[in-house]
Amino acid sequence: MPRKSTPLVKWVCEDCGSNDCGSDAYSVWDTLTQEEVLGGSYDDAWCTNCGGDAPIKEVPLTRAERAERRLLLEATPAARQRAALLAAAAALERAYDNVRRHPVPIGVLKAMRKARLDARRAARLNP
After folding, report:
1. Full domain range(s) for residue 36
2. pTM of the full predicted structure?
3. How many domains does the chain have?
4. Residue 103 three-state SS
5. Is the per-residue pLDDT at 95 higher than 70?
Protein backbone atom coordinates (compact mmCIF):
# COMPACT_ATOMS: atom_id res chain seq x y z
CA MET A 1 0.00 0.00 0.00
CA PRO A 2 1.57 3.35 -0.97
CA ARG A 3 2.45 5.64 1.88
CA LYS A 4 0.67 8.98 1.89
CA SER A 5 3.22 11.78 2.05
CA THR A 6 2.88 14.75 4.34
CA PRO A 7 1.95 17.87 2.34
CA LEU A 8 4.58 20.60 2.17
CA VAL A 9 3.35 23.80 3.78
CA LYS A 10 4.33 27.39 4.49
CA TRP A 11 3.22 29.73 7.24
CA VAL A 12 1.19 32.80 6.30
CA CYS A 13 -0.41 35.57 8.32
CA GLU A 14 -4.19 35.17 8.55
CA ASP A 15 -4.61 38.97 8.52
CA CYS A 16 -2.54 40.02 5.49
CA GLY A 17 -1.47 36.77 3.76
CA SER A 18 2.28 37.51 4.06
CA ASN A 19 4.65 34.60 4.64
CA ASP A 20 7.09 36.89 6.48
CA CYS A 21 5.98 35.53 9.85
CA GLY A 22 7.09 33.16 12.59
CA SER A 23 6.68 32.15 16.18
CA ASP A 24 8.64 32.79 19.36
CA ALA A 25 10.98 29.96 20.34
CA TYR A 26 13.97 29.12 22.49
CA SER A 27 17.19 27.34 21.66
CA VAL A 28 19.48 24.93 23.48
CA TRP A 29 23.13 24.08 22.96
CA ASP A 30 23.81 20.71 21.29
CA THR A 31 27.11 19.41 22.61
CA LEU A 32 27.43 16.81 19.85
CA THR A 33 27.06 19.17 16.87
CA GLN A 34 28.45 22.21 18.73
CA GLU A 35 25.53 24.25 17.45
CA GLU A 36 22.53 26.03 18.84
CA VAL A 37 19.39 24.01 18.05
CA LEU A 38 15.66 24.57 18.49
CA GLY A 39 14.61 23.59 21.98
CA GLY A 40 10.93 24.41 21.66
CA SER A 41 8.44 27.03 20.59
CA TYR A 42 5.76 29.10 22.24
CA ASP A 43 2.20 29.89 21.16
CA ASP A 44 2.95 33.54 20.29
CA ALA A 45 3.20 34.29 16.56
CA TRP A 46 4.14 37.46 14.72
CA CYS A 47 4.02 38.98 11.25
CA THR A 48 6.68 41.41 10.08
CA ASN A 49 4.40 42.77 7.37
CA CYS A 50 1.59 43.61 9.83
CA GLY A 51 4.08 44.76 12.45
CA GLY A 52 3.08 42.75 15.47
CA ASP A 53 1.30 39.76 16.92
CA ALA A 54 -0.80 37.96 14.34
CA PRO A 55 -2.44 34.58 13.91
CA ILE A 56 -0.63 32.36 11.43
CA LYS A 57 -1.85 29.37 9.48
CA GLU A 58 -0.29 26.64 7.38
CA VAL A 59 -1.11 26.60 3.68
CA PRO A 60 0.10 24.04 1.12
CA LEU A 61 2.99 25.01 -1.15
CA THR A 62 2.05 25.69 -4.75
CA ARG A 63 3.46 23.52 -7.53
CA ALA A 64 5.99 26.26 -8.41
CA GLU A 65 7.12 26.55 -4.77
CA ARG A 66 7.55 22.77 -4.53
CA ALA A 67 9.64 22.77 -7.74
CA GLU A 68 11.83 25.63 -6.45
CA ARG A 69 12.31 23.79 -3.15
CA ARG A 70 13.33 20.61 -4.98
CA LEU A 71 15.90 22.52 -7.07
CA LEU A 72 17.39 24.19 -4.01
CA LEU A 73 17.68 20.89 -2.15
CA GLU A 74 19.33 19.18 -5.11
CA ALA A 75 21.81 22.04 -5.44
CA THR A 76 23.33 21.33 -2.04
CA PRO A 77 24.20 17.61 -1.86
CA ALA A 78 27.10 18.30 0.52
CA ALA A 79 24.73 19.98 2.96
CA ARG A 80 22.34 17.01 2.80
CA GLN A 81 25.22 14.57 3.32
CA ARG A 82 26.50 16.52 6.33
CA ALA A 83 22.99 16.64 7.84
CA ALA A 84 22.64 12.87 7.39
CA LEU A 85 26.02 12.26 9.02
CA LEU A 86 25.16 14.51 11.95
CA ALA A 87 21.82 12.73 12.39
CA ALA A 88 23.60 9.37 12.38
CA ALA A 89 26.14 10.63 14.92
CA ALA A 90 23.33 11.90 17.17
CA ALA A 91 21.51 8.56 16.96
CA LEU A 92 24.70 6.70 17.81
CA GLU A 93 25.33 9.08 20.70
CA ARG A 94 21.88 8.35 22.16
CA ALA A 95 22.35 4.60 21.69
CA TYR A 96 25.82 4.74 23.27
CA ASP A 97 24.49 6.69 26.26
CA ASN A 98 21.68 4.15 26.69
CA VAL A 99 24.06 1.18 26.48
CA ARG A 100 26.41 2.70 29.05
CA ARG A 101 23.58 2.58 31.61
CA HIS A 102 23.13 -1.17 31.19
CA PRO A 103 25.66 -3.99 31.40
CA VAL A 104 26.76 -5.13 27.93
CA PRO A 105 29.77 -7.03 26.61
CA ILE A 106 32.82 -4.76 26.36
CA GLY A 107 33.20 -5.62 22.64
CA VAL A 108 29.75 -4.18 21.87
CA LEU A 109 30.55 -1.04 23.84
CA LYS A 110 33.86 -0.56 22.00
CA ALA A 111 32.22 -1.10 18.60
CA MET A 112 29.51 1.47 19.37
CA ARG A 113 32.11 3.97 20.59
CA LYS A 114 34.17 3.51 17.40
CA ALA A 115 31.08 3.95 15.18
CA ARG A 116 30.12 7.09 17.08
CA LEU A 117 33.59 8.60 16.70
CA ASP A 118 33.72 7.66 13.00
CA ALA A 119 30.39 9.38 12.37
CA ARG A 120 31.59 12.51 14.17
CA ARG A 121 34.83 12.50 12.18
CA ALA A 122 32.99 12.07 8.88
CA ALA A 123 30.65 14.96 9.74
CA ARG A 124 33.63 17.22 10.48
CA LEU A 125 35.36 16.25 7.21
CA ASN A 126 32.23 17.02 5.12
CA PRO A 127 31.32 20.59 6.13
Report:
1. 8-75
2. 0.47
3. 2
4. coil
5. no
